[in-house]
């Protein structure tokens, strides 16, 4: 592991200032905020992340869950995944979020991992974590070993000729279906980004994963009030029953009235280079009868642009079945 400096921030302003000052003082300085450290410390041990400075943000006042100003909810960046999953208010209003969180990682990891860290979770692509393999995400311009290599678990939506890595988070898929907003604090002030605009497609620059600028800190997320009379759920399909990443998953929010779908939000996990909202599926669902035929048509629409590689072609059908099953289950929820 390379040596790095370590600072503990005592205020949000100080954290942003420390990060900005380090970037200004030293060209190429890599500053990382650290909280639970469940991804970052792993990647530092592997030599994939080589920060020159860590800013410990564990003492910032960002660990609360509370009501938002619009009737929704506000969740601090330092709220642990386990606390979010078991919060009674979130469970009641947004069950899809709790289900997604509890399907991820292990109880020990959920006790450490934070909201902000989960938003920034890095891919599990084998070659990204192997320092000697070609990987455009880890080392821009070096190539992509996954294209001709092992890519069974990688993405089929939103890929490019430069990267086919999957976003591994479950929480992020639920947040997509809930229309969350990410709140960011930097030296130049605060800003809000709808989660649908937070993640970048890999394109020619897969090393750039989000719209965060150097030194910017995620402070919290907000969730709008639940759609009236809506129901929601998360389904995750994987190689083993626990402590495993999704091969395909679906987060679904449905408003059904008199047998008709009045509102729908659909997001897919395990298949996209970013947590994958599907306006195509939502367009099919809204205004259609709540029937098996509609669920099938929505799944067809959601995967219409899939570009599989030989080893992960099975994901196209798997993701369709996953979404159909999620829609069926959520529609039957009382
Ligand atoms: Fe790297 Fe992306 Fe290729 Fe994986 S798929 S090796 S993360 S460039």
Could you describe the 3D structure shown?
The protein has 334 residues and is of the alpha+beta class. The protein has a domain at 230-333: Enolase-like, domain 1. It contains twelve helices and twelve strands. The strands form three sheets. It has a five-stranded antiparallel β-sheet with strand order 4-5-8-6-7. A four-stranded antiparallel β-sheet has the order 9-10-11-12, with helices on both faces. The radius of gyration is 20 Å and the shape is globular. The structure holds iron/sulfur cluster.
Sequence-ordered SSE layout with sheet pairings:
Blueprint: E1 5-8, H1 12-25, E2 31-34, H2 40-46, E3 53-56, E4 65-67, E5 73-76, H3 81-86, H4 88-93, H5 95-102, H6 107-112, H7 115-119, H8 171-177, E6 181-186, E7 189-194, H9 195-198, E8 217-223, E9 230-237, E10 248-257, E11 260-269, E12 276-277, H10 279-285, H11 292-302, H12 314-332
Parallel strand pairs: 1-3, 2-3
Antiparallel strand pairs: 4-5, 5-8, 6-7, 6-8, 9-10, 10-11, 11-12
Helix pairs in contact: 5-8, 10-11, 11-12
Percent helix: 25-40%
Radius of gyration: 20 Å
Oligomer: single chain
Q: What compounds sit in this structure?
A: iron/sulfur cluster
What is the CATH third-level topology name of the domain at 230-333?
Enolase-like, domain 1
Average pLDDT, all residues = 96
C-alpha end-to-end distance: 53 Å
Provide the descriptors you would attach to this structure in a database record:
alpha+beta, five-stranded antiparallel β-sheet, four-stranded antiparallel β-sheet, 30% helix, binds iron/sulfur cluster
């Amino acid at each position: 592991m390379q040596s790095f400096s370590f600072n503990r921030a005592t205020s949000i302003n100080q954290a942003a200032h420390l990060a900005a000052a380090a970037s200004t003082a030293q060209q190429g300085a890599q500053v990382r905020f650290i909280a639970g450290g469940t991804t970052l410390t792993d990647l530092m041990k592997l030599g994939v992340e080589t920060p020159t400075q860590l800013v410990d943000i564990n003492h910032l006042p960002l660990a609360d869950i509370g009501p938002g100003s619009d009737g929704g909810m506000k969740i601090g960046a330092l709220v642990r995944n386990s606390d979010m999953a078991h919060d009674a208010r979130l469970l009641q209003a947004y069950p899809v979020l709790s289900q997604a969180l509890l399907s991820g990682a292990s109880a020990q990891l959920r006790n450490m991992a934070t909201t902000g860290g989960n938003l920034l979770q890095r891919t599990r692509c084998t070659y990204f974590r192997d320092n000697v393999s070609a990987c455009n995400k880890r080392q821009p311009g070096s190539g992509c070993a996954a294209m001709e290599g092992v890519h069974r678990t990688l993405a089929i939506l939103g890929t490019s000729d430069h990267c086919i890595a999957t976003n591994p988070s479950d929480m992020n898929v639920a947040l997509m279906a809930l229309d969350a907003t990410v709140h960011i604090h930097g030296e130049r002030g605060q800003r809000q980004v709808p989660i649908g605009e937070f993640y970048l497609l890999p394109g020619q620059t897969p090393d750039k994963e989000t719209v965060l600028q150097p030194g910017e800190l995620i402070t919290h997320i907000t969730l709008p009030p639940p759609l009236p009379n809506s129901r929601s759920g998360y389904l995750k399909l994987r190689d083993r029953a626990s402590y495993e990443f999704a091969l395909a998953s679906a987060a679904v929010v449905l408003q059904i009235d008199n047998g008709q779908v009045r509102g729908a939000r659909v997001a897919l996990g395990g298949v996209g280079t970013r947590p994958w909202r599907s306006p195509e599926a939502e367009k099919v669902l809204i205004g259609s009868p709540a029937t098996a035929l509609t669920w099938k048509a929505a799944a067809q629409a959601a995967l219409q642009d899939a570009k599989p590689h030989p080893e992960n072609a099975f994901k196209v059908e798997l993701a369709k079945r996953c979404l159909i099953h999620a829609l069926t289950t959520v529609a039957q929820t009382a």
